[in-house]
Each structure stands twice: as C-alpha cells, then as structure tokens.
Design goal:
The protein has helices at residues 103-106, 132-142, 155-160, 162-170; strands at residues 5-10, 20-24, 29-35, 39-40, 66-80, 83-94, 109-111, 123-124, 147-151. With 171 residues, it is α+β, with helices and mostly antiparallel strands. It starts with a strand and ends with a helix. The model has no long low-confidence stretch (mean pLDDT 95).
Length: 171
C-alpha cells in the first residue's frame, strides 16, 4: 500500500442505501461516507436491489468482490440513458485471484456517473461508480497506490478469497 486511503463498499446493502466509504487508514478517520455506490447490472435482477451475483468473467456486467490496488486516474467516458458523459476514472488492479483478477481487462474502474445520486445508484457494467462531484474529490486521493475493497456477505467468496479467508481464520 503506497497511500493510506481505502475505498470500501458494502454490497450487502441495496443501491438505495449509502454503502460506500473512503477511510484514511493512517489517522483511522472517515474521509467521506456513507454515500451511494453503483453495482454491476449483472449482479442484481432489479435496478435498485441488493446485488447477489458476482463474477470475474468478461461480458458478465457483474461486480467483482475483493481487494484492489488503485492505479492511475484518467478521463473516463461512459453512456447513460443513451447519452455520453465524461468523468474522472480510476483504474483498478484486482488482487483477489479468481474473484477480481480480470478487472483491469474487463475495464472495471471506479468513476463518477450521472446515474448515481445522493439517494440511489443505478447499475453499471460492474464498476463501483459514485456521484461525479464526489469522484472528482476522492479518486485522486486513492490514485497510484490506495486500496479498494468491495465486500458482500457471500459465504463462498468469504471462505475462498485469500484476503478475506486469512482474516476470518485469524479470529
């Protein structure tokens, strides 16, 4: 870890509830949160539900759980409701082998999106997207060495992802 910042998302909550936080791990303080965060459209049947399906596969449009290291920021371009938009993007390198290790190849990134508001988040292509203004403020803090952790109370993942299983077995 090169930077003390951690972006944490609790996908055990619906997208109509704030479920994202950014922490400064050096001071053990909450930098921002809770706030709404999108999940992949392949992770839930309804637009504003709780995600229950997670995948590392290309084309799944699902969110991928586990630990990521934040890479560089860049100018992100997306589509929502048939319209193009631009925002800041943050490249993510999946560290949870078999769970999110294809994230970079899949184009799963953190970014700002117009379909995320303070009260609800639409669905992404698997990205943990946040409000655009919040992304402009937070993603540079995480860039080039911060951590991202996408969590859900998924027993299969929790028992098999080495980053989680190691912590669970230590208790």
């Amino acid at each position: 870890m090169k930077k003390p910042y951690l972006y944490f998302v609790d996908y055990g909550l619906p997208s109509t509830q704030p479920r994202g936080y950014v922490f400064d791990m050096s001071t053990l303080q909450v930098v921002d949160g809770p706030f709404t965060v999108a999940h992949g459209r392949g992770s839930s049947r309804s637009q504003f539900g709780v995600p229950t399906r997670f995948s590392n596969a290309s084309g799944s449009a699902a969110s991928s759980l586990g630990l990521y290291v934040a890479g560089a920021t860049y100018s992100f371009t997306g589509n929502s409701g048939g319209r193009s938009y631009s925002s800041i993007g943050l490249r993510l390198l999946g560290m949870s082998s078999g769970w999110n290790s294809n994230a970079f190849a899949r184009g799963v990134v953190a970014h700002g999106a117009p379909y995320v508001t303070p009260t609800k988040a639409g669905r992404s292509e698997g990205c943990p997207a946040m409000e655009q203004q919040r992304a402009k403020r937070l993603l540079p803090k995480l860039a080039n060495g911060g951590l991202v952790f996408l969590f859900a109370p998924d027993a299969n993942w929790m028992s098999r992802d080495p980053w989680v299983a190691r912590a669970t077995n230590a208790n």
